[in-house]
Amino acid sequence: MESSQFHTALALLDWQVELGATEAICDAPVNCYELPDTLAKPKAATGPQAVSQAPKAAAEVDPVAEAKRAAAAAQDLDALRDALAGFEHCALKRGARSLVFSDGIAGAPVMIIGEAPGRDEDREGRPFVGRAGQLLDKMLAAIGRGRTDENAPVYITNVLPWRPPQNRDPQPDEIAMMRPFLERHIALAKPQALVIMGNISAQALLGKRGITRLRGNWTDCFGLPALPMFHPAYLLRQPAAKREAWADLLSLKARLGDG
After folding, report:
1. Which CATH number is 80's domain given?
2. Which of 1, 108, 175, 196 could form a disulfide with 153 if both were Cys (CB 3.0 to 4.6 A apart)?
3. Taking the model in full, what pTM does it have?
4. How many structural domains comprise the chain?
């Protein structure tokens, strides 16, 4: 190399060093801030090593299947209550204060099934204790029955054991999750007849809505005679419907063979 070319190259190198270029990596310049179109993929392992390195996919949980297993394992009502208390797949549980399981006397000839707990029920942990519950007690007393009457008892529960936020209607997936527990609850309580109160209960147990059309007509539910009725909360809003509710109560009384 001629002396003039050497000094020119050296001057250019000094200039680049002053600019901050301290290392020569390759012939073509590289933009370190530019992402490649495709990242190099690591070579896939084969054989037993591939099995050990494969990420384990998180198994999806079927809440209804889990509910069926938990409910079927319960051999008595206390065990069923514990199974519900330990069921973690229903989001309502995390927002509720209490598990509302039942009230009245287990083994009573009539089992009343409401929709879901409200504020008062959530606070006390018992179904039907608010204004609607007070009306229900009066309705039952009119045909000689009561939740604490050992001679003519009733047993009471709800489709959902936890209060929905702001007392909204239960969602279909929530009903589906709780239905296995409700079916097992009925089997363990062994009533002679069911009273299905309100649209939500009719939807959960009969797969039908339209309580004004369903009420007063005996049907079959899990092999038991079942009577759909207006929910007491509806009767508080529509007092004129108490006439139909009274007719339904008399029908229930006759069905149970009460004098």
Report:
1. 3.40.470.10
2. 108
3. 0.76
4. 1
